[in-house]
Amino acid sequence: RGPQLHIPNRVIEEVFVEYFIKVLKENNIEADSIRVDTGVTELLNTGDISIITNEVSKLLAKMSNRDFMNFDEKCIKSLYIGLIHNDGFEVYSEYPANSGYIDLLLRRKGILGNYDIMIELKYLKKSNRKLLESKRVEAIEQLKRYSQDERINKPDLKKYAIIFIGSDYKIYEV
Known about the structure:
By secondary structure, the protein is α+β, with helices and mostly antiparallel strands. It has 5 helices and 5 strands.
């Protein structure tokens, strides 16, 4: 297994996200901005994460097999951050909660929207598809544990386990 990517703090994370988005654009891998705006609006108003996740999937599908070498959930997380960043949500990566770290926590800015969103991401190579069920159970257990944290346990919190298998995905609402 190769070196593991670790983003040490929020400033470095923002630089990494900007760099990652720049690399995607340089390789003509761009998201449909109208669909992204629609997806963020849906996320804010209904808590539906499917449109944004579909846009992430489309970006992944445009990448070459070589792009997936040493690929992990942090790369997918960067795509979500890049698409959602500054659009009605404060985006927190690796938010500390109940003896762990939430992959992504999206908190509404001001009075916008109806939901905060908690996301646990998992990534499997297509050759590891057989691990889907164990990853699903792991992600759901993590979400349940994190949601017990009194700072985030609110009735307007939507919780999602999202597992990518290559560019395909499964969404589980908890």
